[in-house]
């Protein structure tokens, strides 16, 4: 009976660790996404796809260049 209880406790402990680890890994991935912000977006003026890193951000929209920002 004690062995059975111990076995259940160990299984629960392993399940807890696996879930905890998964959540932590998810959080790390989310943080990375926010940090790098490397996402492909469409320029509203010329419909060219550019990465958010190289884009010009204005009013929540990503433009490929300052020219497109002016000619919007
Ligand atoms: Zn453009």
From TrEMBL:
<keyword id="KW-1133">Transmembrane helix</keyword>
<dbReference type="InterPro" id="IPR049708">
    <property type="entry name" value="PP0621-like"/>
</dbReference>
<keyword id="KW-0472">Membrane</keyword>
<dbReference type="InterPro" id="IPR017854">
    <property type="entry name" value="Metalthion_dom_sf"/>
</dbReference>
<protein>
    <recommendedName>
        <fullName>Prokaryotic metallothionein</fullName>
    </recommendedName>
</protein>
<keyword id="KW-0479">Metal-binding</keyword>
<keyword id="KW-0480">Metal-thiolate cluster</keyword>
<keyword id="KW-0812">Transmembrane</keyword>
<dbReference type="GO" id="GO:0046872">
    <property type="term" value="F:metal ion binding"/>
</dbReference>
<feature type="transmembrane region" description="Helical">
    <location>
        <begin position="6"/>
        <end position="22"/>
    </location>
</feature>
